[in-house]
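Run: sequence + flavin mononucleotide -> complex structure.
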Amino acid sequence: MSWFYRNALRPLLFTQGAESIHNRTMGMLNWAGRHEMVCDVMRSFLGAPELPVELFGLRFPNPIGLAAGMDKNAEALPAWAAMGFGFTELGAATWHAQPGNPQPRVFRAIPEEAIVNRMGFNNRGAEAIAEKLVEWKKLNRWPRHPVGMNLGKSKITPLDKAAEDYANSFRALRSHLDFFVVNVSSPNTPNLRQLQDKSALDEIFSALQEVQRDAQPKKPILVKVAPDLSFEALDEILELTGPRDIAGIVATNTTIGRPNTQDPDVQRVYAEAGGLSGRPLRARSTEVIRHLYRQTKGTLPIIGVGGIFNAADAWEKIVAGASLLQVYTGLVYEGPGVCRSIVSGLIERMEEKGLARLSPAVGSA
Ligand SMILES: Cc1cc2nc3c(=O)[nH]c(=O)nc-3n(C[C@H](O)[C@H](O)[C@H](O)COP(=O)(O)O)c2cc1C
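>> structure
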């Protein structure tokens, strides 16, 4: 699958603009998701072997999840499980529906296997997304794996009202999903990353916990961090996780940094404003994971994301401290067989090392 995708399908797909092919693919996956038989066929080609992970009181059939931003409006929810993903993070959802930044806003740096995007949280708004989720449930097409939601701040909401904005989305979506990720790390909403500041973040966490104060069961709330934060700034965020009952940390979002390159086509893409994802992000994201794991002595679960394309990349992040992983750009460049291939590779590594479960490998290097 991977060879065919890389050498035949991908060159064809990449003749089209990044966003238009994304939208077409999402349309097809929406259709596929509505048809159980189509999903069964997809699963027979793309489904990943079982490699269960228990975390946050949830059972993940395998540790590879779909990263936030791919399915912002829950359009293709059933299809991700059929593609082998062990969990899905939808969103980012914001309280107000919003169109995002003007197009073009996604750019491929093909030789580097990277993407620069400045989508700006285009989404239909938390209430409309909640309706979509209800629709999937009514159709009996809800996946048998954990589904979470990435929460962003609406562009029109001023920073000092951010906590209320996140809380409104959380209230609308809370009952429908298994876990939530507070996204204060996207570079594409003006000043959003200032919310990674300790007191601002504390206010958001406290507003969210207030929403579910009397509710049962409580939904796990995680926070997603930028790879551009210093270790000191990351440590400040960690100080909040205990008092505010934060279940875990997603590391990392895209970077505003750009590596050096001599390739003029890549230089042109890197000159675009936005967040960089894919291969060039891999090492920094792993570094952040390793730091977070060491600082917390492994007590706070980490979802590792950034530049995972294959089992070696995935293993690197697991031994650095990630218990679960997510993929976005790797799916674009490696194709829909990426999950199966990563999970199979992880199982091979575990067999080589005589491990029956993944958890002893977490943070082992
Ligand atoms: C087009 C695009 C849109 C994204 N949208 C979101 C988003 O809405 N919320 C979020 O937390 N991360 C978003 N991300 C970041 C990814 O979830 C992920 O953290 C990042 O791309 C690094 O992983 P990767 O190298 O596997 O792509 C987006 C990434 C891309 C490429």
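>> summary
The mean pLDDT is 97. The first helix runs from residue 2 to 13.
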